[in-house]
TrEMBL record:
Domain Acyl-CoA dehydrogenase/oxidase N-terminal: from-to ranges: 12-93
Gene3D superfamilies: Acyl-CoA dehydrogenase/oxidase, N-terminal domain (1.10.540.10), Butyryl-CoA Dehydrogenase, subunit A, domain 2 (2.40.110.10)
Pfam family, one: Acyl-CoA_dh_N
GO molecular function, one term: flavin adenine dinucleotide binding
Top-rank taxon: Bacteria
Official protein name in the record: Acyl-CoA dehydrogenase/oxidase N-terminal domain-containing protein
PANTHER family: ACYL-COA DEHYDROGENASE (PTHR43884), ISOVALERYL-COA DEHYDROGENASE, MITOCHONDRIAL-RELATED (PTHR43884:SF12)
Amino acid sequence: MTFAKTGTDHPLVAKVRDYADTVLRPRALATDRDGVDTAHIEELAALGLLNHTAPPRYGGAGVDRETDRQVHEIIAGACFNTWLVWAQHASLSERISTLEATGAPIPPLAQRILRGELLLGAGVSDVRRYPDHYIAARKAEGGWIFDGTVSWVSGWGLNSALTVAAVEKDTETVVTALVPVDDRLHSAGPLALGAVAGSRTARVALRDVFVPEENVLTTESIERARFLDQGVSNDARAQHFGLADTVLRELELTPEQPAQQVAAVWRPRFDQLRTTAYDLSDEARTHGGGAYRAEDRLAVKVAVGEALSAITRALLIARSGRGLAGDDTAQLYARTALFLLVQGQSADVRRAQLAELTA
């Protein structure tokens, strides 16, 4: 079984599903251990997944929102490490596509991204922590100077450029720009994470890096940046449901009937959560995003996190002691579910999660 789909699948979806089932899923445990490598990125590029949201004039597929969600679900469910590296690129590539649609000038580096010629990394989440921790921006002739340490960059060593969000503290202006990966950027190596350890996630230091004006994507107030961020952090998203689908499928294939019964109970619940999450996200987008129906969206996200915890525990229980072995997917999915509790976690999300645990 799988989650219900609406409409007709885009041809890309069938190709991605075949790749996920024949390539990504069989090596997911090895990827978690050894890391995403250049072969993964070359495969994604060959499928057109480095610019699948870009307009056809850039060689992209120009897929719609529903197709994009399907692709994210499939890849996240097959290999979450690969998904995390790719998703950093995909979400930012989509942002550039949106900017291009406004008629704004697109710098050469951004055009290469739209053509799917390179992998982009993300260094934008530290804005959530301002003023406690952030990348500092200061105006300079012809551009900006960025200085600070990005807390999380996934795919480090594979990225050709980063999208970095920095803050000019005097005016509290958020400057988001493309920064090529070169010898001005430094990392001590991947972080020793307990989950998604194969995602090549690292802290990356920028020391007085000059960013030319042409590489600046947007400048906006900190209030506006936080408003837009709520459209990301408040929602349960495709990666949650991709993982859920995979875990439920493995429960359904478990010989013991009690495990199958768990799946039978939880699949319709996830179907409903998925429908509600996507409907709320789309409704919020239609109404300008931000805090629109924030409590409802947060409630669904918290419920999805709790539900993922339940079904991954169920799979561990069904596998008994072997579920904790490094060669068993049960422990991989359980650790991934923990990661999803903190991925994209804003202060509002954290409060809602903790409040649920005191209810």
